[in-house]
Amino acid sequence: MTIASTSRDLLLLNGPNLGTLGTREPGIYGTTTLAEVEESVAELLARAGYGLRSEQHDGEGELIRALHKHRDTAAAIVNPGALMIAGWSLRDALADYPAPWAEVHISNVWARESFRHNSVVSPLAVGVIAGFGTHGYELAAEALVRRLEAAQGTAK
Rounded CA gap, 71 and 150, in Å? Predict the structure, then answer.
């Protein structure tokens, strides 16, 4: 596998309503803030020799622009939020993203309302992590680092 990247940074891309983590429906999403998620993922990546670029946008167009802006990243962790259901333009941008990416959902979306069960973006991801709370972001970061190291022949 060839990684089309000039960077040792990973992109953390969060979609609609994820900027309110910590206060939004804590029974479902917990009390960890997005800033705390970013800090924990950045620390994990730093230990592996990677950096983090993070963006959160409520609009699909801004998420697409962020993907275009960060095309040089080695991989991405993407929580599309509800755009997983009908974010066709986001899907097209993710299909064009040149590096591996993992999809993260804080809750197990398939254990919730049936309208959340069909994703237009999941088939494009190298993996999907759902239902582990905000720890899912760290799980995705670890999995992507292992994938990158295996592709580069530097796996530990």
Answer: 21
Number of folded domains that form the chain: 1
Catalytic choice (70, 97, 105, 137): 105
- Identify whether 156 is part of a domain: no
* pLDDT given for residue 137 in this prediction: 98
- The verdict on residue 52 lying in a domain is yes
Domain of residue 146 covers 9-151
Per the confidence metrics, is the pTM higher than 0.85? yes
Phi, psi of 13 (to 5 degrees): -120, 120
Residues of the chain with pLDDT under 50: 1-4
Query: Of the listed 29, 50, 97, 137, which one is catalytic?
Result: 29
Whether the Cβ atoms of residue 10 and residue 144 lie closer than 8 Å to each other: yes
Burial tier of 5 (Cβ tally within 10 Å: 0-12, 13-18, 19+): middle
- Assess whether 105 carries a catalytic annotation: yes
128 belongs to a structural domain: yes
In a domain, 126, yes or no: yes
What's residue 134's pLDDT?
96
Residue 29 is a catalytic residue: yes
